[in-house]
């Protein structure tokens, strides 16, 4: 079996997911970034989007994240975000209401976070 990454997906208030994976994909300010074992050290800014974690066995783990940081060093990947939600934690109707409220208030950051959650729901289905 190929070398694995140790992944930590952390929100401000909790560890959302932790474990080993063969690959992780996240959206940074420079675009989508895939990380495999042996990746060069990296520190990058996350933008609201969907993170995909591919464990060696089992289904892909998907989470919506807000702004944050992605750190890679020695096959350890830390994804740090103020807010992070697994697909099972996101309610579609509540997220649509959240999006409408953010749009009516002109809160672009909240719009981007709600849109990330909706993309997560689409990918999970």
Strand order, main sheet: write it out. Answer: 2-1-9-8-5
Rg (C-alpha, Å): 14 Å
What low-confidence regions span 5 or more consecutive residues with pLDDT below 50?
none
Determine the mean pLDDT.
94
Strand content: over 45%
Question: Could you give a short account of the major beta sheet?
Answer: 5 strands, mixed
Instruction: Measure the end-to-end span.
Output: 29 Å
Count of runs of 4 or more consecutive helical residues: 2
Number of strands: 10
SSE string, helix = H, strand = E? EEEEEEEEEEHH
Helical amount among residues, as a percent range? 10-25%
Structure classification: alpha+beta
Shape: globular
Protein model, in words:
- The protein is globular.
- The protein is 25% helix and 46% strand.
- The protein has 125 residues and is α+β, with helices and mostly antiparallel strands.
- The chain is built from two helices and ten strands, in the order ββββββββββαα.
- Strand 6 (49-54) and strand 7 (61-65) form a beta hairpin.
- The longest helix has 17 residues, at 108-124.
- The termini are far apart.
Question: How would you summarize this macromolecular structure in one to three sentences?
Answer:
It is built from 2 helices and 10 strands, in the order E-E-E-E-E-E-E-E-E-E-H-H. It has 125 residues and is α+β, with helices and mostly antiparallel strands.
